[in-house]
Amino acid sequence: MLAASEPASAGLQHATHAADLPGVREVLEVLTFQSGLNTTMVVGGTALLGLAAGVVGVFAMLRKRALMADALSHATLPGITLAFLMAGALGAQGRSLPVLLAGAAVTGILGVLCIQAILRLTRLHEDAAIGIVLSVFFGAGVVGLSYIQANAAAGSAGLTGFIYGQAATMQRGDVLMMGVIAMVALLATIVLFKEFTLTCFNDAFARVDGWPVSLIDLLMMALVVIVTVAGLQAVGLILVIAMLIIPPVAARFWTERLWLLVLVAGVIGAASGYLGSSVSALLPRKPAGAVIVLVAGGLFAVSFLFAPARGVVASAWRRVRLRLRIAEDHVLEMAHENEGQGLSRTQLEDLARLRGWSWPLPTTVRWSLRRRGLMAFADGVATVTERGRLRGAQVSRNHALWEQYLTSYADIAPSHVDWSVDQVEHVLNEELVRELEGRLAARGLAVPGGGGRS
User: Fold this and answer.
1) Rounded to two decimals, what is the model's pTM?
2) Which of 224, 297, 313, 368 has its CA 20 to 30 A from that of 66?
3) CATH number of 22-307: 1.10.287.470, 1.10.1520.10, 3.30.565.10, 1.10.3470.10?
């Protein structure tokens, strides 16, 4: 069942016991929006919220405003309590969601303005200003909640749900509001994409070039305020920051292009809202806001580990392959310098000790050289093949070429080039080799080895 911050549940009526697990039919009904109006609205609304938060969060992350958004979310709590009290004093419905969200927006903006004032008028750093405003505003909100619960208990039930979220109480109007917010965020991103990009990456140049950086910053933070306030009901003021930050950070592992980063962050945010609220609907007594954030965290972990370009696994694999290739090149270079006489087991062991190879590497190098057809091993002697001889000659010439370049062109003493040469000789490509040859030839210096690259 879909749960709010309290044990109360809504949505599916199939599971009635905490240990009940949903069947395949129930899962499909939730995922295809066929499990009832309430569950459909919650799943759809949180997916739209995730989409908007992911898109807007990209620019908050690039602008280094993650902590600012955190302070903003905590600063909304006193606004909620003040709006409730003022509405009650005026004879209006204090529990009206638009009234509460309007109050949240006002104090949220006030919190951001207080941070800006502290930064302008004092020498405090941004982290200190954010810590002050966050703690003071949140403390004021907690005091306000305590006062309301002590003096207006009859009409205050559920106000504390804004701290942790109360997605189960979302109505049709709330979902429509999420849709409007998502559209506003997407349209603003499309219209102001160039301005946001310039401000995030080079605000100093933007100011010199005449762009209204302060206004662009204000529009950017306005979108953050809108998304934050909209997310209060779904995930709560404590967890809404996760929806603004986790999807962009997860998306960053997948791409280097900004437009694609915005797209992927929106998809991850929408997937977090959709899958998190679906899981909350299927499992009894699980708060939707917390589950949504956990799903977002899971998607971040997958991106962190398995993204093909920047993930931990891919990066580690590339380092292993590069280290193996360099070790192979050292063996082939040694065989080339040995004039094709072959290498004994003792020579290979001496090379391994000299290079500081760990235990598995020598065995792996021999296996890789044999598999690639670069060397043959028989009776304790390593014999280089024709392909291996060409590669050994190539590495040896790269070594001499780079060494000659550093000593003759870059004016580096010969005693200081060994480490640099050893790092670079294995990764010189054809284009760079030709450039080095051209520069040396232009200065009338001899090109090591003569001729082109093997």
Assistant:
1) 0.80
2) 313
3) 1.10.3470.10
